Amino acid sequence: MKKLFPKGLLAIALCCSAGIRVSAQQKDTVPPTQPPANPPAVAPINMGVPQQYEIADITVAGTQYLDKTLLLSLSGLSVGDKVTYPGGDQFTKAIQSLWSQRLFADVTIYVTKIEDNKIWLEIGLTEMPRMSSFSFKGIKKTEADDIATKAGLRKGSVITQALKQNVIGVVHKFYADKGFGNATVKIEERVDSGQVNSRQVVFNVTKGSKVRTENINIVGNYNIADGKIKKKMKGTKERSRFTLHPDIEHVYVDSLAEADDFWQTYGFLQPTRALEKLDPYFRFKLFSSAKFNENKYLEDKGKVVGLYNSRGYRDAVIVKDTVYKTRSQNLNIDMQISEGKKYYFGDITWKGNTRYSDSVLTRILGIKKGDVYNLELLEKRIGKQMSQEGGDISGYYMDYGYLFFQIDPVEIGIRGDTIDYEIRLREGPQATIKEVRIAGNEKTNEHVIRRELRTIPGEKFSRQDLIRSNREIANLGFFNPEKIGMNPVPNVQDGTVDIDYTVEEKANDQLELSAGWGGYIGLTGTLGVTFNNFSLRNIFRKETWDPLPSGDGQKLSVRISSNGKAYRSYNFSFTEPWLGGKKRNQFSVSFYSSYQNPYAYNDYYKLPGDTSRSTDGHFKVLGASVSLGKQLKWPDDYFTLIYSLNYQQYKLKNYNYFGIAGFENGTSNNVNVKLTLARSSVDQQIFPRSGSNFMLSAQYTPPYSLFNPDKDYSKEPASKQFNFIEYQKYRFNAEWYVPLSRPMGSDNKTFVLKVAAKFGYIGRYNNRTTLSPFGRFEMGGDGLSNFAIYDRDIISQRGYPVYYTSDPSINPENGQPANYSGFTVFNKFVMELRYPFSLNPSSTIFGLAFLEAANGYKDLNEYNPFRLRRSAGIGMRFYLPMFGLLGFDYGIGFDRLTPGGGLKDAAKFTFMLGFEPE
């Protein structure tokens, strides 16, 4: 048998053996469990002169898992190839190719036979062992799962040195980010006797103790105090440091328990709670993170220099900084700063501008001669980075199509502490939009997206149009608003720009399903489906049903609900947002019917012979509406005007829940026209960060009483007064969303302040009529538990149940007065601080803290906008595409607090399902 020579070496001493072996073996690997296949014995051959041979056959030995045909392909050798032996480099290249796959502990090529001009070869391989299982010891399962995912560990992977080093690196980074800078990993391999050439790998992880920053010592800072510099270093904080007793200077504590242990250890009786009273920030400081993270520290050093630059210290640098361990194995940081002198802006001149004059650009820039030098502010005002907020010079140019616009601030002179600037502009041509491409819409038809865009081929490019297009796509509700991409692709040669939009579809259809059987009660439950991206035109095309035809942006909703014999309702609605397909004309139709019998279960409860309990009574509502909304161009195109025609019929039989004497039987008809002027500029639907919503509506029934001015309708029996209901009704809602900080990192999370004000009034045309109980306002509760079948506007208030009087001193728990028929006037004010925990479209989650004040009034004479019920609390919202909005609030009604009572008596949980209550 001929053995080819080791990898990378020339063939030498070729005649000293019956053959030559060429092999390669990786160091630091587990020895193979099986030796390569034994080559057959052959007679010695004189190999003094290299000759060319044709490969007659190639076999592969020693593999358990890998495909032999693929290995032959990787080797580069094949039957029929010409090779030189001995001395040819084809064998070395074949070994190098196989070795580079990092799958083998040993690679060997054998010559098994030579006959005439033909040669037979065998490739002997020893595969690296495979990982039959892996586990982590010394850490939590959740941490182990996270590390395994980050490291890409999988059963069956080849165990290489690179795999081990990768796991060690992932573990170190994982725990370093959590403040454990001394984590160690020991890898243990055990032979798995149940599988060929396999190992069970155990990663023994020792996290060690957290590495904290004990002290940050700063020198050289004469003009900015230590505290302000350390406050800028948000990612690198000192460990909490307190003087717990005048005889002992400083100790370090991480918890209230440690502080209490300190007192006991040294025999002091002063409790930790007393220290909290002396220092109200004590508790907060205890739980501030002091863990050290090297990457955050590097960022913080840049922030320190940036702080100096923003104060005019242009030449400020960190001359030297040292991070070293203390006796407690924590860290100290010594930082030496060279501040340099303070600079001021001098003359600022403009060059290259034709679109705007110098005076206009100076006004936009907002920096005057003598202002403290601040390069960051200068670059922000000129718009080095395009921002959605606008207001910078680049934004003004790009709003008018100057996509190729460039701006550079250049220092042209330094006079003492004064820096003169020349701002050079290259306006370039106005770019024309050439092509608009859309990708990622797997379900939604392209025309649904394209009709929302403000960037139209053939028109001039505008940054504002691009931002507005993003908003319109997000507000469709069909796509993940965090993943909408907008990429202008300039074409310098012809002065045009292509725009690529990318979207990511998200589930937004909703299902509501519950059912039960209650014997005497009967069937109870709800079945409701809402398709938010429905397609009516494809209703007869079976291939488009999944489960219903979709993609045209229409909305279809069907809901059936039953509570046995006591209650049932049916609801249907359909909305076409672009009636005719040319303009944003929203057309909607709806139908609803409900039935309620409050006496349905009297038979079940009454005793034999009891005739006092009647079961003959009900309240039925039948309604339908049709509406048409039209987008306006003035005052701006955020406005919409909506016309709607509505009809409701109410049938009462022995139903005396309205607080109006004699109004227990009869039929009432309500025909009305409603006009709504609305404006919405919010950036998205689920978690708005900016923008506002305004709505002003007026609703009118025909003034029947004016047709017969001589008749006093108020003296008619109640059952006849409301045959045809008449009223005039006005509503006003306003909401603002204000981001309190810039989005933090790539996740776009930021605190958002929501402020809202609402007002409503319903009244008569004249004093000859009585205002019906329908259409009024019901205050308090959460909109779910309210008895809302009366056809009233439910104005919820967290922290309060439904209340029936305008006097805040009267506790709502005292019950409904006999003559209560609803409020005719209300106002409500809301303030919320919101923060998103997850912006994932499959589960959007955000928390909030709120303040609310509201009240309802019997009439305008009683109206007092300052006599309000007040509440505060916290809440959570969960938006799940299948179920819509879910949420709960824990509110405390301040006016429910009673002498001697606690917060528990004034607190109330409120819930919401499918919609945000008013």
Notes on the protein architecture:
The chain is built from 18 helices and 38 strands. The strands form 8 sheets. The protein has a 16-stranded antiparallel sheet. Strands 1, 2, 3, 4, 5 and 6 form a 6-stranded mixed sheet that branches. Strands 7-9-8 form a 3-stranded mixed sheet, with helices on one face. Helix 3 packs across helix 4. The radius of gyration is 39 Å and the shape is globular.
Task: Summarize the entry for a quick read.
The chain is α+β, with helices and mostly antiparallel strands and 918 residues long. The protein contains 18 helices and 38 strands. The strands form 8 sheets. Strands 21-22-23-24-25-26-27-28-29-30-31-34-35-36-37-38 form a 16-stranded antiparallel sheet. Strands 1, 2, 3, 4, 5 and 6 form a 6-stranded mixed sheet that branches. It has a 3-stranded mixed sheet with strand order 7-9-8, covered by helices on one side.
